[in-house]
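SAMPLE LOG
Freezer: B-3
Tube label: C17
Construct: single chain, 249 aa
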Amino acid sequence: TFVSSSEGDFGMEKQIIEQFSNKDLNGLIITPILNEDTDLSHIFELKRNNIPFVLLEGVQGIRAHLVDIDNVQASSDAVTHLIELGHENIAHLAGPGYSKHSEERIEGVRRAFSRSRLIYRDDVIVEAGDSFEAGYEAARDYFSERGAETTAVTCYNDLVALGAMKALRELDLAVPDDVSVVGFDDLPLSAVMDPPLTTMQVSKKKMGEMSVQLMSMRIEDDEGRPPVKIQISGELIVRSSVRNLSQNN
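STRUCTURE (predicted):
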């Protein structure tokens, strides 16, 4: 068994996969780096050479075994939590447009609205990204220009949420008294923020276990069965960054 990290560097990811492909390995489990400039030809090459692999995030145009987060349900659960606490003006700081995870989390927002008495509008989706800086800039612009009535935001990930919290402080908006904030990923830092961040947690251990099981099945399968997709449910970790508005009614 070999384990290697690209540390978020696309060139390093490509080099690692190419090196591993030249070894006598049974298969690869890959968490691909995705951005708008990413060249994923090395993953397509694995497919062409019939080298078994399992992805931990979906890639457009590649049909492969996949273990991923149930982003739609997780995002829907986060928004539903806010609705149940009395929030009616909710925004979502969305991830990058090239990310399938971002699309799925937006769909989760839509579903939560559709299952409530609230009316979904396209302007509840705020373009952000996946970094602290993206969250900061998106929240600063949104709340200074058109977010006066918004009482809660869900965010693409915890980094975006932490950036949003910084922007809200600079705008003299308190979390959660003025705006409630929900993240996604449950980074270790999120539990020690002021206030600690409510966020969606997905078990990395479970994803790892399921990916190994799926890889074993792929290696043993000489028939080339159709790709299998396994979705891992998220768990909402409730902390102090969300205010219960229903207690005021």
